[in-house]
C-alpha cells in the first residue's frame, strides 16, 4: 500500500481577478442625464497558507495541486459596488517551508495560526462614478479589474523536533520513540518498515521536548539513494542528533564503528538550508545509542566499543528498547542537551517597522531603449504604468485618452523625448511577455476629443428646457421661412432668372 505521507509538493496557485468597474448614467423620470452612477468592481480573493495543528501531511495538495481563489464581482449601476472574492485559505502542517520557482525561501511557517499570503488578488476596477471630477463631469468609461497573481510554489515539510533519531534500517529507532513517548509507530522485523517520520513528545523532569525517528539511512543517502534524501530534510531543525546503532545485527561488514562512520559521512555530505537549521549537521550535538543490549552478544559488543566511541568525544548510552534498559538515563541526558540548545538560541526581538518614503524625484518608472532587428524600440518599465495598462479598455476611445493623460502626468512623454523617441516610434508598456505596443504620436487626439475637451459632455452644458409656447413659435418661424423661400424662388423663375439648360450636342465621330 502506498504511503499517505507527502512532504514535498509543487503547488500552482491562482488568486482571484478583480471585478470590472461599470460605466452607467443615472436614469430617472423627469431627470435626464442624471450623472454617472457606475459602481466599482470587487477585489479578487487571496490565496493564503495557514498553519493548522491538525494537518500532518501535504497529501491533499499532491492529489490536487491546482488551487484558485474566487474572482471579484463587477460593479453595477446606481453606485452599487461588486462583492469581493473569497480568500482561499490552504491549511498546511507546522514546519512547512515555502519556496519560489528558483528555490529561494519565501516563508517559513512555524506556529499554529501563522498565515502567509502567497498570491494576492487583483484590484477591482473603478466605475465612472469614482472617476468623475470637476473636469471630467460624465466619464463614458470605467476601469477594468486587475488579474490576480498566478505562480508555482514548492511546499516542503520539515519536521519540528528537538531530537532526531538517525541510523541504518531496523536499528530500533521506532521502538525507542514508542517506549519513550506516547507515539505508536509501525514496528516490524524487516528493513524500511518506517516510511514516514514519526514524532513523539517526551517529558523528563521539568523539561518537555519532541523526538522524531528518521527513516533508515544507507550509504549514498545524501545523493538520493534509498529514502535518505527524502527525509534528511526532517533533521534540519533538530538541535540534537542521536545515532541509533544496532549491536545485534548479523549482516556482514556491519559493526558499530562502521555504521557510525557511514552515517556521519552522509550527514557531512548533506547541505541543509542555512536559514532553517542554524548549524551544519556535522556541527550539532551528537549522541550515540547502542541499542538491543538485551541480547547477550550485543551487550558484550556494546561494552567493547564504548571506550573507542568515548575516545572520539561522543556521549554513549547502552539501551534496550525491548527490555526498557537505560531509557530513563537517556531521556534525562537528551533533556539536558535540548535545554542547552534552547538557551543558546537568541531571543527573537520584534522587528522594528522602518518607513522608507520614496524620494520626491522618484518617478516610479524608467524608459529603456532597446536595439532590435526591426529598429529601436522604447520600453516603459514600472509598476504604475503596467497596472494602468491592465486597467484600460482599449475598445473605448475615452478610456484610452484617460490613459494618455495619466501617463503624461506621470512624465512618460517627457522621458520618451529624452530617450530619443520621435513620432511613430514603437513604445512597449507592460510585462515583457505580454506588453502592449503603441505607435507613439505625442500630439494625436483620440475620438472623444474631437467632440470637445476630454472629460466634458456638451449635453450637460445646456440647462434650459424650451416651453410649449417657445416650441410653437419655433415651429411657426420655421414654416414662415420655408414659405418665404418658396415665394422667392417662384418670383425668380417668373422673371426669367431660372431657364432650362440647352441640350448638349455629342459628336458621334
From TrEMBL:
Start and end residues of each stretch annotated as Disordered: 29-48, 57-89, 457-509
Biased composition (Basic and acidic residues): 457-495
OCT domain: residues covered: 357-442
Subcellular location: Cytoplasm
Matching Gene3D superfamilies: GTP-binding protein OBG, C-terminal domain, GTP1/OBG domain, P-loop containing nucleotide triphosphate hydrolases
HAMAP family: GTPase_Obg
Protein name (record): GTPase Obg
Species for this entry: Luteipulveratus mongoliensis
UniProt gene name: obgE
Amino acid at each position: 500500500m502506498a504511503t499517505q505521507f507527502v512532504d514535498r509538493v509543487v503547488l500552482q496557485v491562482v488568486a482571484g481577478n478583480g471585478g470590472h468597474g461599470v460605466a452607467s448614467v443615472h436614469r430617472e423620470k423627469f431627470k435626464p442625464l442624471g450623472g454617472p452612477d457606475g459602481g466599482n468592481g470587487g477585489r479578487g480573493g487571496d490565496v493564503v497558507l495557514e498553519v493548522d495543528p491538525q494537518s500532518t501531511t501535504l497529501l491533499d495538495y499532491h492529489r490536487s495541486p491546482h488551487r484558485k481563489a474566487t474572482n471579484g464581482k463587477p460593479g453595477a449601476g446606481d453606485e452599487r459596488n461588486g462583492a469581493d472574492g473569497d480568500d482561499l485559505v490552504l491549511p498546511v502542517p507546522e514546519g512547512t517551508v515555502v519556496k519560489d520557482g528558483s528555490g529561494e525561501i519565501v516563508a517559513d511557517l512555524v506556529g499554529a495560526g501563522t498565515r502567509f499570503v502567497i498570491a494576492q488578488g487583483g484590484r477591482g476596477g473603478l466605475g465612472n462614478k469614482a472617476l468623475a471630477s470637476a473636469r471630467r463631469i460624465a466619464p463614458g468609461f470605467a476601469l477594468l479589474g486587475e488579474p490576480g497573481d498566478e505562480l508555482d510554489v514548492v511546499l516542503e515539510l520539515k519536521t519540528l523536533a528537538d531530537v532526531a533519531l538517525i541510523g541504518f534500517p531496523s536499528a530500533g529507532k521506532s521502538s525507542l520513540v514508542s517506549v519513550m513517548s506516547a507515539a505508536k509507530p509501525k514496528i516490524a522485523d524487516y528493513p524500511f518498515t518506517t516510511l514516514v517520520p514519526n514524532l513523539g513528545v517526551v517529558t523528563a523532569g521539568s523539561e518537555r521536548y519532541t523526538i522524531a525517528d528518521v527513516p533508515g539511512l544507507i550509504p549514498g543517502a545524501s545523493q538520493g539513494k534509498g529514502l535518505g534524501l527524502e527525509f534528511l530534510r526532517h533533521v534540519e531543525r533538530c538541535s540534537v542528533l542521536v545515532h541509533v546503532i544496532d549491536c545485534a545485527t548479523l549482516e556482514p561488514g556491519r559493526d558499530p564503528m562502521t555504521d557510525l562512520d557511514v552515517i556521519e559521512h552522509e550527514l557531512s555530505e548533506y547541505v541543509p538550508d542555512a536559514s532553517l537549521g542554524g548549524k551544519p549537521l556535522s556541527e550539532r550535538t551528537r549522541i550515540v545509542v547502542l541499542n538491543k543490549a538485551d541480547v547477550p552478544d550485543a551487550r558484550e559488543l556494546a561494552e567493547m566499543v564504548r571506550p573507542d566511541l568515548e575516545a572520539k568525544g561522543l556521549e554513549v548510552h547502552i539501551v534496550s528498547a525491548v527490555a526498557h534498559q537505560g531509557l530513563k538515563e537517556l531521556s534525562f541526558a537528551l533533556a539536558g542537551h535540548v535545554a542547552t540548545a534552547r538557551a543558546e538560541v537568541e531571543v527573537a526581538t520584534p522587528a522594528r517597522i522602518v518607513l522608507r518614503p520614496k524620494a520626491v524625484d522618484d518617478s516610479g518608472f524608467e524608459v529603456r531603449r532597446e536595439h532590435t532587428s526591426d529598429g529601436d524600440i522604447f520600453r516603459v518599465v514600472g509598476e504604475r504604468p503596467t497596472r494602468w495598462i491592465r486597467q484600460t479598455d482599449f475598445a473605448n476611445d475615452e478610456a484610452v485618452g484617460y490613459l494618455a493623460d495619466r501617463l503624461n502626468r506621470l512624465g512618460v512623454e517627457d522621458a520618451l523625448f529624452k530617450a530619443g523617441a520621435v513620432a511613430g516610434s514603437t513604445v512597449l508598456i507592460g510585462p515583457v511577455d505580454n506588453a502592449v505596443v503603441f505607435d507613439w504620436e505625442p500630439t494625436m487626439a483620440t475620438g472623444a476629443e474631437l467632440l470637445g475637451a476630454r472629460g466634458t459632455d456638451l449635453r450637460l452644458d445646456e440647462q434650459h428646457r424650451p416651453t410649449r409656447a417657445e416650441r410653437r413659435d419655433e415651429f411657426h418661424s420655421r414654416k414662415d421661412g420655408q414659405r418665404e423661400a418658396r415665394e422667392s424662388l417662384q418670383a425668380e423663375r417668373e422673371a426669367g432668372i431660372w431657364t432650362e439648360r440647352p441640350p448638349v450636342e455629342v459628336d458621334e465621330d
